[in-house]
Amino acid sequence: MFTDEARIDWSGNCGNLAAAVPLFAVMEKLARPEDGVATIAIWQANVGKRILAELEIFEGQAVWQGDFLIDGVAFPGAPIRLRYLDPAGDCSEMFPTGLLMDKLKLPDGSQVDATLIDAGNPTLFVRARDFGLKGRETAAEIDPAIMRRLEMARAAATVAIGLADDIFAAGREYPATPKISFLSQDGDPDCALHARALSMGKLHPAYPGTDAIALACACATEGTLPAELAGGPVRGMPLTFSHPSGRLTLEAVLGLDSLGWKVDEVVLTRTARPLMRGEVFIPLD
Fold first, then answer.
1. Cα separation, 180 vs 138, whole angstroms
2. Does residue 13 belong to any structural domain of this protein?
3. How confident is the model at residue 269 (pLDDT cuts 50, 70, 90)?
4. How far apart are CA 182 and CA 114, in angstroms?
5. Per the domain annotation, does 185 fall within a domain?
6. 3-state helix, strand, coil in the chain (%, to 5)
7. Of 120, 31, 38, whose CA–CA distance to 78 is shortest?
8. Which residue of 59, 100, 133, 264 shows the fewest CB atoms closer than 10 Å?
9. Residue 167 located in a structural domain
10. How far is Cα 174 from Cα 155, in angstroms, rounded to an integer?
11. What is the CATH number of the domain that holds 203?
């Protein structure tokens, strides 16, 4: 469950690291786009989804220096626009249980309202107040018993969406997915709500990119817990919400099919920069 354990959960993906893929591809000559704004297609092999990354190319090199700032990121950079195409349904449908809001039964016998969504990554959204939280606590302010109950909810959701057979297998085999976020209303009229996420059992210092994708999809769907806290579905406009390090804005682009509204893509802008380049010599024997 924690990063100091020798385990890797391959079931999800990282929205922020996705921004590094097109930069790496250009630097290593895996892609050779012309100067201007280039579009590089990314295939997420483990979840079977596509991303279109748009970034600026100058003299054959990817531009990574700039003044675009992201709350929670220390350095400015050049914007990389990520278009997550048809982000829903890695496990099955966008709402794997068939419900927009579930009554999730926890192992301690209690129940909480929850929206379980599969978009970006499988994600569980709950109200902060249902766990005795105001929604803006720091990690040090959250009682360990509440953290354990949040993990129980995450494990129960893992079973509910069919990833694990029981809560014990959920903790052992799926420590990183589904994600869990607790939400609260935001007094700022420019923010739809406030969101905090747990990542590998720890409070995230900002907000994960794939969780933001799931939140945008949920907020665009009437009847979900996030849409309720946002004061109604957020459609046809960007979603801005607050998190521990500031704000994040992204947009779920909707379309229509025979069943009604669907999410065609989610657009998220990130930055990336090279950290190092080196050589590793490995013995053949």
1. 16
2. no
3. very high
4. 10
5. yes
6. 20, 30, 50
7. 38
8. 59
9. yes
10. 9
11. 3.10.310.10
Q: Is residue 221 in some structural domain?
A: yes
Total of domains in the chain? 1
String of DSSP letters for 73-133 = -SS-B--EEEEEES-B-SSSSSSTTS-SSEEEEPTTS-EEEEEEEEESEEEEEEESGGGT-
β strands within the chain, DSSP E: 36-44, 49-58, 61-62, 80-85, 102-105, 111-119, 121-127, 179-184, 194-199, 202-203, 239-243, 246-257, 260-270
Tell me which H or E stretch contains 241.
strand 239-243
Where does the pLDDT of residue 1 fall: very low under 50, low under 70, confident under 90, or very high at 90 and above? very low
Length of the chain equals 285
- CA terminus-to-terminus distance, the chain: 34
Q: Which domain holds residue 218?
A: 102-248
| pLDDT tens per residue, range 16-65 | 788 999 999 999 999 999 999 999 999 988 778 899 999 999 999 999 99
Residue that is written with structure tokens 């109200």 in the block: 127
> Encoding tokens for residue 135?
């929604």
Structure tokens at 207: 């907000």
